[in-house]
């Protein structure tokens, strides 16, 4: 595979560029090629855009809002999962199934970089045309998941990945309730949970804001997404966030004269590898490397004095 162009508008560190090239060379052929060849179902950009636009129209019925209201229903909707070093939460796009998701190769590359240290949870939400109620459920479950895990697993760190409607959910869940379009009443991340978020990677984000420092791609910075978030809404996560958008994406670039194929370009334009590389650069050293570096019990560290065996 040819070396990818660096798409971010600001220069990246040399180590990041080198790691990205290494990842590209190590991409699992089955996952990427099958998706690029059309074997996996891809969301329809035009219908996705129409479904998302309805979010700002008629309000949800009170009973639908109440179902996920954290004040009315404070008990978490999820149980804790295992305390692995890293928990990756994926939030798929509208119409994507359980397999062949845009985010699947991203997760695979992250997991392969840290064998036996990564657990993945696919967000339990419908990802269908009923964006208001479905995305509200997604935001509540994402917030509950991170808060529950922060309580149960003091050392666990979180990686959040979202595509299309899933990117809307992730972005709104980590933002303050007053700037959300969905899930204003579903609660907030506890401060400890928010601190544990190690990396956030979004693709084709409906709430894309074209002038943010964490944006990545060949988009027009003067053009926002179909449902742009207020400027600065995600400043607290800016150094941990990459929001990928290409110029032909009618979801993150909301003009009407753009090529509809842009919203599915992320399946084959190298941004999956780029996002995975960004996450991996933010991970600590593998546990096995830390174990190898630690001095063995009863042995003298290099450069240290011999142990006193008189006791």
TrEMBL record:
Q: Where is this region: Disordered?
A: 283-311
What are the entry keywords? Disulfide bond, Hydrolase, Serine esterase, Signal
Question: Does Disulfide bond show up as a keyword for this record?
Answer: yes
Its signal peptide is 1-36
Known InterPro entries for this protein? Cutinase/axe
Give the coiled coil ranges: none
Superkingdom of the organism of origin: Bacteria
Task: Please give the SMART domains that the UniProt record associates with this protein.
Answer: Cutinase (SM01110)
- One short Pfam name that applies is Cutinase
The reply to whether Hydrolase figures as a keyword in the UniProt entry is yes
GO MF annotation terms: carboxylic ester hydrolase activity
**Family assignment from sequence similarity:** Belongs to the cutinase family.
Full protein name: Cutinase
State the organism named in the record.
Answer: Leucobacter soli
